[in-house]
Amino acid sequence: MPVAAEKIVGQDLMDIFQKVDNGERLTFEDGIRLYQTPNLTGVGFMANIVRERRHGAKTYFVRNQHINYTNICNKFCKFCSFYAKKGGPAPYEMDMAEVKRRLDWHKDIPITEVHMVGGINPRLKYNYYLDLVRLVATSRPEGVHVKAFTAVEIVQIAQIGKVSIEQALKDLMEAGLDSLPGGGIEILSDRVHRELFGKKLNGEEWKEVSRVAAKLGLPQYATMLYGHIETDEERVDHLVQIRELQDETKHFLTMTPLSFHPEATELEHIAQPTADTDLRNIAVSRLMLDNFDHIKSFWIMNTVPVTQMALWYGADDADGLVHEYEITYKDGEFGNKTQALTHDNMVRMIEEVGRVAVERDSFYNEIVRDDVAPVQSRTLLPLTVV
C-alpha cells in the first residue's frame, strides 16, 4: 500500500497519508495543506480511504421533502437569494392550510423526513411554529421525521415566545420536532459574520444553541457554506471548531459542505462554484472530521455529476429525493423551483459510479421496502432532474 499510495498522494502529502492510514487526528496545518495542494486526486484518495473504512461502498439517501414556510426575513444576509426583496422573490408566509396542501402533494410517496427552514419573520407567533411542527409530525399515519429550524430560527422562536432556548426546544420537541438542521452560521468566522451576515447569530451564540440541543438529546446536522469570501484558514478553522464541539456534545449526525451560488445575491460578482472546489471541500471535511460518521454531498447544489464523483472523494450520503427546495435559485430566476429525483434515478446516480445505494431514515437506519425490486432486477430510468 505505501508504494502505491505514494504514486497517488505524492511525497509532499505522505506524512498526512501516514496519519490517515493510522487513524490519527489531522491538525489545522494539515488542513491548510489539503486545501492548498494542487494534488486534488491525492486528497480525494485519502478521503476515500476514510469513507470506505467506515461505510465500504454503501451510499445513503433519504426520501425527503423540503418546506420553506416563509421567505420574509429581517437578517438581510448578503449571500442570500431567498429572502423577499425589491426586484427579487415576492414575500410569502404559508398558513397551515398551505403547508397541508404541500404535504398532500406527495402523499403517494413514502417520505420519511420533512426538512423545514425559513426566513426570520417577526410577524409569526410562537404557536405558529408549534402548530407547524404538529401538522407535519401528524401528516402521515406511519409517522415522519421532522427536521426543522436552524439555530437562528430557534433563537427567534424563543424570543417571540419570551421563553429560554431550552424551553422553546422542549416545546418544539413535545410538538414533534426530531432534529435540527445545521444551517444558520454558514462559517464560524467573526470576520465573515461581520461582513456578510452580521444580523444573525455569531459563532458562540450558534454553538450555545447546539449545546442546549445536545443537553436535551436532540440530534443536529452540521454544515459549512464555502465559496464566498472565506479563506482557506477560515474553512479549516470552521472544521476544527465543529470537530471540537462534536467532541464535547457528540450529537451531530452528518456534515454537509454547502456550495455557495452567487446568482441573485449581493455577491453576484463572485465566480460560480467549480467541481474542484466542491470535491475538495467534501474530501477535506471527511479527513478533518474524524468524529463524524457521515459526510453528505447535497446534489442540488453540487449537481448530480459532481455528487457522483464526491462518492469517491469522501461522501457517503447523497441526501435525498428532495421536493420544493427553494433556498438556492438557478440562473437568477424566481418562482417554482421544484427539484427532485425519482427513487430509481437516485439509485442510478449512485450505482452508475460503482457504489451501493442504501435507503435510510434520518438516523441512518437502513430501510428495506417490499415494493422496491432488488438491484439486479431493476430497470433504471434515464437520469434526469425534474
Output the keywords.
single chain, 386 residues, alpha/beta, TIM Barrel, three-stranded parallel β-sheet, 15 helices, 11% strand, globular, disordered C terminus
Structural class: alpha/beta
Give the oligomer, counting copies of the same chain as homo and different chains as hetero: single chain
Strand content: 5-15%
Helical content (DSSP H or I, runs of 4+): 40-55%
Gyration radius, rounded: 20 Å
Strand order of the largest sheet: 8-1-9
- Indicate the low-confidence ranges by residue numbers: 325-338, 374-386
List the helices and strands and how they pair.
Elements (H helix, E strand, L loop, with lengths): L1 H8 L4 H9 L5 H9 L3 H16 L2 E5 L1 E4 L28 H10 L7 E4 L9 H12 L7 E4 L2 H11 L3 H11 L14 H7 L6 H13 L4 E7 L5 H18 L2 E8 L15 H14 L5 E2 L3 H4 L1 H7 L6 E4 L22 H9 L4 E4 L27
Helix pairs in contact: 3-11, 4-12, 5-6, 7-8, 12-14
Question: Can you describe what's shown?
Answer:
The C terminus is likely disordered. The termini are far apart. With 386 residues, the chain is of the alpha/beta class. The longest helix is centred in the middle third of the chain and has 18 residues. Helix 4 crosses helix 12 and helix 12 packs parallel to helix 14. The strands form 3 sheets. The chain has a 3-stranded parallel sheet, covered by helices on one side. Strands 2-3-4 form a 3-stranded parallel sheet, with helices on one face. The chain has one domain: Alpha-Beta Barrel (TIM Barrel), CATH 3.20.20.70. It is built from 15 helices and 9 strands. Strand 5, helix 11 and strand 6 form a beta-alpha-beta unit. 41% of the residues lie in helices and 11% in strands.
